[in-house]
Specification:
- The structure holds 2 protein chains of 2 kinds.
- By secondary structure, chain A is mostly helical.
- Helix content of chain A is 53%, strand content 2%.
- Chain A is built from 15 helices and 2 strands.
- Chain A has a two-stranded antiparallel ribbon.
- In chain A, helix 2 (46-60) packs parallel to helix 4 (116-132), helix 4 packs antiparallel against helix 5 and helix 11 (307-335) runs antiparallel to helix 13.
- Chain A is elongated.
- Chain A starts with a helix and ends in an 8-residue tail after the last helix.
- By secondary structure, chain B is mainly alpha-helical.
- In chain B, 89% of the residues lie in helices and 0% in strands.
- Chain B contains 3 helices and no strands.
- The chains are: A mainly alpha, B mainly alpha.
Chain lengths: 457, 131
């Protein structure tokens, strides 16, 4: 009896020793027994999430990537990532033919085996190189190349060489087709000319004026003419006509500016912190869209998402962010509304200073509000019963020296982002309210107007 | 007797492992706090510098004579140089913090996440870096 106990205990001891020496990394690959491909769900989301983290790093350090250019780059990378794996998701439909301007994306050969994670790796790496192309630094290009090679080495282990080669070629072919479509959307290589000159501002009394002598031209004045992924995201998102402009004290417009003035003068320390937290300046951070992608990245990890859910999630957000910036910019240059700082300095207090610098483009409507509104609806659809209720702490800004912020609802988070622009003196209240409303419509359109796979994990 | 010794060994290995893991995590959290503290300081410098730059640009655009203009321009050039240095430091530090945070954050466990945040905040407070 004692001998039996001893043997059992020895086995346990051996197990404990092995367990305590185990490697943290677990290879999820295994050779497929039949000729059929494994589902997308069977792969980890680590690789795609790491790529989106790398997107953030590259966006920060690439010349010409203002919020508009960044949203577009994220947009096409997300679409390519989804298309590379869609055939491994049961019941899923390609976005080719569903998205405006995206067609002719190749299909995988029937009855041949693919490794969707390898296809995804090749597709994302190629699209990232394409999106930052001319202006990418050598160091950033190397980061993409080495990430791609390292992923491929891990993913290829134990996989038939033909399957590896076929999967790489398929991923590349998917990106080549989508990239070809992207060249006609109106913003091909727009990072080379982010101010889209020549552009002439209209001669109207409410017109935007430069808010910094070093930025005499507004960013992306023709962005609203770009082709969106979903046509209704532009045709159904016309902002309401803004408050009639007036410099008369007591007028509605004057009151809006006065509200901004009083808010900035009476900000609490918390409101100043919120302003800076959501500022997401280009070249210091990966822009507002990048912040929202960082949040998505965290949510996917929190929910143990597989490559399947991560690919759907990034695609939805990519489409929403790309279109949100097109729609928002269309309104901005339709109304070319003067920024609060300019109006206040001219009509209320010549010495007025905003909490942070005002970005170089018109006020109406707010880009932050648009994109966070769109993002919040995508998050609610993916991670809640639709209500948006979710116990969430955003750690994405800790890297920039901010304390993590906590929210009980994605709507609250978007609202705080929108309000931050009022606290900062960057936007009038209607810019934020209307931006949020229209951004949410875009998020809804992405969820409802496209056919997405259900029961994803 | 043999059984007793084995149980004792198992318990010892288990507690050793637990203790060392806890110790390592505490040290790693301390390191993260140190870096976060530095990031907070850089972030504050970054916002102050951004203000200095935009206010100096305003002054420059309103300069009334050549002497003022030259003085403002020289100061602005100095600020812009500082900005480049600060930005490089900030971006490099951001990458390190992000990776460190990623390895420490208990993503899938909300209660552990709250505990982690509270521990990090507490260390930051004790270092005077919470604001």
């Amino acid at each position: 009896m004692k001998k039996q106990y001893f043997q059992a205990a020895s086995v346990i001891l051996l197990f404990v020793l092995i367990a305590s020496c185990r490697k943290e990394y677990t290879n999820t690959n295994h050779v497929t027994v039949s000729g059929s491909s494994r589902t997308t769900r069977s792969y980890s989301s680590d690789q795609i999430r790491n790529y989106f983290t790398l997107m953030c790093t590259i966006t920060k350090s690439t010349k010409g990537f203002f919020p508009t250019q960044a949203a577009r780059a994220y947009g096409y990378v997300g679409v390519a990532a989804y298309e590379a794996v869609v055939n491994g998701i049961p019941g899923a439909l390609s976005l080719s033919g569903q998205l405006n301007g995206i067609s002719g994306v190749p299909k995988p050969a029937a009855n041949l085996e693919y490794n969707w994670a390898i296809s995804s790796n090749a597709a994302i790496a190629d699209m990232m190189r394409d999106m930052f192309d001319v202006n990418i630094t050598a160091a950033n290009r190397t980061k993409i190349d080495s990430t791609e090679a390292a992923n491929l080495a891990v993913l290829s282990a134990g996989v038939n060489a033909d399957v590896v080669s076929r999967s790489v070629q398929y991923g590349k072919a998917v990106t080549a087709a989508i990239y070809q479509s992207s060249t006609s959307d109106g913003a091909h290589q727009s990072y080379l000319d982010p101010f889209q000159l020549p552009y002439k501002l209209p001669a109207v009394d409410y017109c935007w004026e430069p808010t910094s002598p070093t930025a005499p031209n507004p960013v992306s004045p023709k962005w609203g003419s770009n082709r969106p992924f979903i046509a209704a995201n532009i045709s159904n998102t016309n902002p309401v006509v803004p408050t009639t402009y007036s410099t008369a004290a007591g007028s509605d417009f004057y009151k809006l500016a006065l509200d901004v003035y009083h808010q900035v003068k009476n900000n609490t320390p918390e409101q100043v912190e919120i302003t800076k937290y959501w500022a997401d300046d280009p070249f210091n951070t990966c822009t507002p869209a990048g912040h929202t992608f960082n949040i998505m990245n965290q949510l996917l990890k929190e929910n143990n998402a597989t490559l399947e859910k991560a690919s759907v999630a990034f695609a939805k957000l990519s489409i929403a962010e790309n279109d949100a910036f097109i729609s928002c910019w269309k309104g901005k240059y339709q109304y070319v509304l003067i920024r609060p700082v300019t109006y206040i300095q001219k009509n209320i207090d010549a010495n007025f200073k905003t909490v942070i610098g005002t970005p170089p483009f018109p006020a109406y409507t707010s880009g932050h509000s648009y994109e966070s509104g769109a993002g919040s609806v995508i998050f609610a659809d993916l991670f809640t019963d639709g209500s948006g209720k979710y116990d969430f702490t955003d750690y994405s800004q800790v890297q920039y020296g901010f304390t993590a912020r906590h929210y009980a609802n994605f709507n609250d988070m978007a609202m705080e982002c929108a309000n931050s622009r009022f606290y900062g003196g960057i936007h009038y209240t209607p810019d934020n309210i209307e931006g949020l409303r229209l951004g949410r419509i875009i998020g809804d359109n992405v969820n409802k107007m496209l056919v997405w796979p259900t029961n994803i994990k | 007797m043999k059984y007793f010794l084995l149980v004792l060994m198992l318990t010892a290995i288990y507690s050793c492992n637990t203790k060392s893991t806890k110790q390592v995590n505490k040290e790693r959290l301390e390191k993260l706090a140190d870096r976060s503290c530095r990031a907070t300081s850089i972030r504050k410098q970054r916002f102050v510098l951004a203000d200095n730059i935009r206010f100096m640009q305003d002054s420059l655009s309103k300069a009334k004579n050549k002497a003022d203009s030259a003085r403002f321009q020289s100061r602005l050039a100095e600020y812009l140089k500082q900005k480049d240095i600060l930005l490089k430091t900030s971006l490099a530090l951001a990458d390190t913090i992000r990776m460190q945070l990623d390895s420490l954050l208990p993503y899938s466990d909300k209660a552990a996440q709250k505990q982690f945040t509270a521990s990090l905040d507490s260390i930051l407070r004790s270092k005077g870096c919470d604001k």
